[in-house]
């Protein structure tokens, strides 16, 4: 299978090249040249399959030209080492809990798949790979933990100083080994911009083998389609249509859901739910797409002013804006609304994290306007990851899961970095 750039369908590369490069040279995102559809039988019988079995079939459909059956099995088995249950929150509304992995956020799925696939594709090469990651929180922790100790790979994480919760920070600044953290005087978008610039810098790329593990990388992005299939497989069989609501920042997660839909999963509608960083909801409601500076919120993993995966949404709907706007409905919420929802849902007996709260609220508002649906919202992080916000909202203390508590005892190790690409370049050029 070839992968093409969203900026130029004529630019096509192999799987290995797409994964190792991350971003196309013209700054486009790689996309599979064809989207395979799964058989009606597979969909009809999906509820009888395990999460792994769903994974073999779905990843097999995409990667069977490039990887052996055994490699695909290895990849899926390495990725799916924790469950993603759906939990009923109220009548017809389910939480897809994606936080049962090592860093308690959905990015663990993509990070584990990505590190495994990269190490497979690099076998036999003697060049060290540098993975550059910009993070507003969860990407850094998931990628750092996914790549920790992977031979031949060094991970360099850029994060905005003072804009990431202590707990999130601990998860990527305390690991040591092949994980380096650079603390940037700026916001997330500054970090993302420097990383993008590094990938385009000729001199840097002659000296170093640089790659990305942000959701722009197909190896991070594609495996996220798996849990949409799995969630669907566990929903009760009814005559109602299915809607998925996805709390969104860079829009990789929802784009993977749309990929699943294009592969034949009968999802009728998507809700793109954001905080006040509402570029996409504004666009879906008829305004021009206008990137903006990101605004800090309590759902900080979604504080993105220029969503990097947006081009994938368009391409997945054949570059037809009308269809995109029909199939994806945008909603956005303030921090006050988010807190209110967390309190309301707590009274139903379920604790939301601030990101999941945004997803839940989008789903509720969609379903209030559109009867006849069963709804799933993606609970993208464990509430304990955003402990301060959740405790303040709910006025009660949370018990941290053991895995999270363990990170808090580590020693933070970072290097400061000015918000200046030349400084970043100097740092990279000094690596051997
Ligand atoms: C990254 C993240 C999101 C946003 O996901 P995108 O794929 O960037 O849209 C939502 N919630 C949490 C907890 C995250 O870490």
UniProtKB/TrEMBL annotation:
First-tier enzyme category under EC: lyase
EC number: 4.2.3.1
Cofactor list: pyridoxal 5'-phosphate
N6-(pyridoxal phosphate)lysine PTM sites in chain numbering: 107
Domain Threonine synthase N-terminal: 2-79
Gene Ontology molecular function terms on file: pyridoxal phosphate binding; threonine synthase activity
Pathway(s) served: Amino-acid biosynthesis; L-threonine biosynthesis; L-threonine from L-aspartate: step 5/5
Stored InterPro entries: Ser/Thr_deHydtase_PyrdxlP-BS, Thr_synth_N, Thr_synth_N_sf, Thr_synthase-like, Threonine_Synthase, TrpB-like_PALP, TrpB-like_PALP_sf
Any Pfam family: Thr_synth_N
UniProt keyword annotation of Zinc present: no
Record keywords, A-Z: Amino-acid biosynthesis, Lyase, Pyridoxal phosphate, Threonine biosynthesis
Reactions mediated catalytically: O-phospho-L-homoserine + H2O = L-threonine + phosphate
The keyword Lyase belongs to this UniProt entry's keyword annotation: yes
Domain spans labelled Tryptophan synthase beta chain-like PALP: 93-365
Family statement drawn from the similarity comment of this UniProt entry: Belongs to the threonine synthase family.
Name this protein carries in UniProt: Threonine synthase
């Amino acid at each position: 299978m070839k992968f093409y750039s969203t900026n130029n369908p004529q630019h096509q590369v192999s799987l290995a090249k797409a994964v190792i490069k991350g971003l196309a040279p013209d700054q486009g995102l790689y996309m599979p040249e064809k989207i395979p559809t799964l058989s009606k039988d597979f969909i009809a019988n999906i509820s009888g399959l395990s999460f792994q079995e769903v994974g073999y079939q779905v990843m097999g459909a995409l990667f069977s030209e490039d990887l052996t059956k055994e490699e695909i099995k290895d990849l899926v088995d390495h990725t799916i080492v924790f469950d993603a249950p759906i939990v009923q929150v109220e009548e017809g509304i389910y939480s897809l809990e994606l936080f049962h992995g090592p860093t308690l956020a959905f990015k663990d799925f993509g990070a584990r798949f990505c590190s495994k696939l990269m190490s497979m594709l690099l076998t036999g090469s003697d060049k060290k790979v540098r993975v550059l990651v910009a993070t507003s929180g969860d990407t850094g922790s998931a990628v750092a933990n996914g790549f920790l100790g992977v031979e031949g790979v060094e991970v360099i994480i850029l994060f905005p100083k003072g804009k990431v919760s202590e707990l999130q920070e601990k998860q990527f600044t305390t690991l040591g080994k092949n994980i380096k953290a650079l603390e940037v005087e700026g916001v997330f978008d500054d970090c993302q911009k420097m990383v993008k610039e590094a990938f385009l810098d000729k001199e840097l790329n002659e000296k170093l083998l640089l790659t990305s593990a942000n959701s722009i990388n197909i190896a991070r992005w594609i495996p996220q389609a798996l849990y949409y299939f799995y969630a669907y497989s566990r929903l009760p069989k009814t005559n109602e249509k299915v809607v998925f609501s996805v709390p969104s920042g860079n829009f990789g997660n929802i784009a993977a859901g749309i990929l699943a839909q294009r592969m034949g999963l009968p999802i009728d509608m998507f809700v793109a739910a954001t905080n006040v960083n509402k570029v996409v909801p504004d666009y879906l409601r008829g305004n021009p797409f206008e990137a903006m500076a990101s605004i800090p919120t309590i759902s900080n993993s979604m504080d993105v002013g220029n969503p990097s995966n947006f081009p994938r949404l368009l391409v997945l709907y054949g570059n037809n804006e009308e269809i995109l706007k029909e199939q994806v409905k945008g909603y956005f919420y303030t921090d006050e609304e988010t807190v209110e929802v967390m309190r309301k849902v707590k009274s139903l007996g379920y604790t939301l994290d601030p990101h999941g709260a945004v997803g839940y609220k989008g789903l509720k508002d969609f379903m209030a306007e559109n009867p006849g649906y069963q709804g799933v919202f993606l609970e993208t992080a464990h509430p304990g990851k955003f402990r301060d916000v959740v405790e303040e909202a709910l006025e009660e203390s949370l018990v941290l899961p053991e895995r999270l508590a363990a990170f808090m005892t580590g020693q933070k190790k970072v290097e400061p970095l000015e918000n200046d690409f030349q400084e970043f370049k100097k740092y990279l050029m000094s690596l051997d």
